[in-house]
Amino acid sequence: MTPRTRPTHGAPGLGLAAIALLTIVAACGSEDTVASAPTPTATPRPTAPTPTATPNCEITVTGRVYDDDSGEDISGAGIVAHLSVPRTFQATSGEGGSYSLLVPNPYGCQVEGLEVSADGYQTESLAVTSADLQAEPVRNFALSPVGDGSRSPPL
Q1: How far is residue 129's CA from residue 134's CA, in Å, rounded to a whole number?
Q2: Selecting from 1.10.3470.10, 3.40.50.740, 3.90.650.10, 2.60.40.1120, what CATH number does the domain 59-143 have?
Q3: What is the pLDDT of residues 48-95, one digit of tens each?
């Protein structure tokens, strides 16, 4: 009995992958045919939408609170910014009746009004938008003393 030998297709010592490649080349006729076969291309991934820039909505409202009758400054008045969300920002007027109220980003875009109150004075409410405050950030308030007949007290 003659020992069986494994066919190597003319390439002794090559591994199975090399033999398979040689077999494919032999079946196709040349290496150029294999090399010119189209290579698969990667499917392009959808791109995420480009985020839009968030507007800077930080608003600083400044001004003075004073007595409507005498013109005297009112220190200790509370100034509150009301928003379209359940949150408020507030400041207190200091000596000279001046105040500075910061409404940080992104809440500055949600301002719907300002309210000013002080002991012994009627509360003043001002419906104002963020755009109004950005265009005109200085807001002065003249408060009427309680009991002044020119305005009715709050309910």
Answers
A1: 9
A2: 2.60.40.1120
A3: 555 555 568 999 999 999 999 999 999 999 999 999 999 999 999 999
